[in-house]
């Protein structure tokens, strides 16, 4: 057997003979591969965590968006309710003004009737005393 060869057992227990330079290169490559796989696993973990955070933030944003839309709807409906209440109050005021005008006309009419009746009573009183 040559001295510049390395004897190793593989994962199946078989004996392998390698050139020392190539064996060193192989072990370095395997080490680099393990480091790469470890870094990729770490990267995958970081990406998974980041995606989880992004999804949580997305859900929180969506929740706030829905709450903002609900608040806007409440404000808009409050404005509509105020406008409707104002219109109803104006209608009620017009109805009461019409009713007041009718009562004033009736009052004036009754005053006229009263003054006519007083005049008739006075004439009758004067004519009966004559």
From TrEMBL:
UniProt keyword Cell division present: no
Coiled coil spans: 86-113
Protein keywords: Cell projection, Cilium, Coiled coil, Flagellum
Keyword presence, Coiled coil: yes
InterPro entries for this protein: FT20 (IPR028172)
Record-annotated membrane-spanning stretches: none
GO biological process, one term: protein localization to cilium
Main location: other
Localisation per UniProt entry: Cell projection, Cilium
One Gene Ontology cellular component annotation held by this UniProt entry: cytoplasm
Official protein name in the record: Intraflagellar transport protein, putative
């Amino acid at each position: 057997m040559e001295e510049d060869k390395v004897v190793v057992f593989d994962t199946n227990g078989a004996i392998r003979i390698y050139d020392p330079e190539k064996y060193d290169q192989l072990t370095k490559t395997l080490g680099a591969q393990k480091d790469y796989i470890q870094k990729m696993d770490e990267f995958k973990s970081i990406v998974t965590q980041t995606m989880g955070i992004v999804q949580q933030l997305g859900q929180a944003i969506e929740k706030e968006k829905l709450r903002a839309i609900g608040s806007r709807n409440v404000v808009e409906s409050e404005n509509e309710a105020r406008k409707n209440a104002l219109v109803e109050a104006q209608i009620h005021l017009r109805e009461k003004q019409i009713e007041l005008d009718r009562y004033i006309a009736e009052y004036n009419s009754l005053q006229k009737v009263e003054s006519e009746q007083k005049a008739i009573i006075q004439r009758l009183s004067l004519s009966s005393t004559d």
